[in-house]
Batch of 3 targets.
Target 1
Amino acid sequence: MILKILEFAQYKQTYRYNSDSLILSDFALNCGVKNELLDVGAGCGIIGILLKSFIPNLSLNLLDIQEKNIDLIKRNLKQNHINAQVFHSDFRTFLSEKKFDFLVSNPPFYRDGAKMGTKEHENISKFQSFLPLDELISKANSLLKPRGVFYFAYEALALPKICAILENKKLKLTKIRFVYSTKNQKARLILIEARKGVKNSCEVLPPLLMQKNSNLSDEMQKICSRFRIKSYDI
């Protein structure tokens, strides 16, 4: 467990991290992330920083397309005393001499049918047209070492498309977890573990229920208390 509180700067009135970031971080930690990690679309850097805080010998790399986010990442790394390499790049055209053991991403997955707002920062952070699913998975595959692992979160409705693209790109879906806002609702989110160059069967993990009786569920309370964080606006 983290003993110190981690602090994260965020911009006012723009896209901010949310519970999905904590859920994905918890998922990656429980599955066993280690060695060389690339956080794709890192935003303010929260996922990579949380993982590094639990795994001090993790070699952390963070990438984001937006210069404003790069500034946030560097600020949050410094104030939390975390060492990492930071890349300002469009993931689709990102070039790297080294390959990675693990990739993690909470990518934009709003579909084209949803109405974009007027704020470019939010649109890039939310809409899949800025990082289409097939390009995300294809690029992830090219950057992973043999038997490397890709952790990501996505809208549950996209599961058939995710499975088809993973199979086409020779990545094996090895773990999946469905996330529900409340009981008796459809799953809104899925957590995916995909591995390169393996023949493992797919493990379906127990579902995660976020709320119970209008309060956070016991598991969500545990996840929130696992990550001792606070944020402030700049």
Target 2
Amino acid sequence: MDEFAADARPYPLPQHLLAEPVRDPDDGERIIAPDPRVVVLPDPAEVFVDDQPWLVRLLHPLVSVELTAFDPAWSGRVHLLSPVEPEEGLLGEDTSAHHDDFACENWISFHVENDGRYRFLGQRRFFEIEDMEASGEQEDPSALYETYAAADAEFTGTKARWERLGALVWGDAQDPTRQRESWGTDIALVDEIGGEPGYGNWHEFPPPKAFALDSSDPAAPVLRLADGRPFTYIGGTAGYPWRNQGADQILLFFEPETRTAALTFDWS
């Protein structure tokens, strides 16, 4: 199904999404219906660079957002991703040996190529399954592989439901390709576009060294590059019901001069 359904309401692409006087500028906009500013369940081939094919199994692309929706001078798309890991705890919690300036506990970042695809800036072994396979040190890898298999099955079911219904709905426990009965169809594709990221436990985890987080105003934390250039908060969405497991909120930031995208996760 075409993500941009014929009956989707048209939107202009203002320089700032939240210029409407009826909306508090600190609040983002909730997107439920198909919208020309977003692409739902984008093809991974259009999300990740060709020479990092291993990203496809690690990160599920949920929604792509057009950067021109924030500034007409910007180009390409940025992507809200749901990591398959962790089984428990935080992303990267068990791979501290492979943290660096661009990826650390609860944070990952990417360069947005000119074609809008992501290039991961961290180390491949930041992800537990990649570290496990490279080192061969885990005695029983079955639990981690089972986590990945279950997540892939759930995500495949989400794609099937979207193609059939054109809506994001909860999947049936026995058959994830079918809608869970009586669970509704008004689930947001994006919980918020724009606005402020707001308070959450995500900013209790320091970002990688290439970035700095100013939490002096806990209601409106500001992510910056280490040299002071600020990121724009693109928006956020929950990791579920895209899959049964996922962060309570996936937050996406973008810095236009370096074309850096940063993702972090709230587990409130």
Target 3
Amino acid sequence: MAIELGSVVEGKVTRIMNFGAFVELEEGKVGLIHISEVADEYVNSVSDFLNEGDTVQAKVISIDQNGKIALSIKKLKQQQKQEAEKQFRTPKGRPAGRGGDFKPNRQTSASFEDKLSKFLKDSDERLTDLKRKTDSKRGGRGSRRSD
């Protein structure tokens, strides 16, 4: 099978670097999974997710003029998730098994806003606490002076 853009390939991780992992594909070709394409979450170290000798499946996201192959595990998982969601939809586009009274879950935007407001509140509390601690170490002399 020829390696084409958008196809899913399987290979063995041969080397892990700070910037990604090299994967040996069929016909002796080598592809690179960049650190940003390893997982949906923040990847501090590729070795937290992959090890040398692991067999992985990835999607081919680009092939440049020199034959360098860029791979993505992240995009493959997103594609698989979308395909799985399509299987559970009726012909009208509604999720199956809900009898038409399904209301989409809108927590994603509310969830983000909740997280943001919680972060701001925690940040303000920490700054206030830090200010109190630094004032107490100085003895509070900076805020009140007597002449």
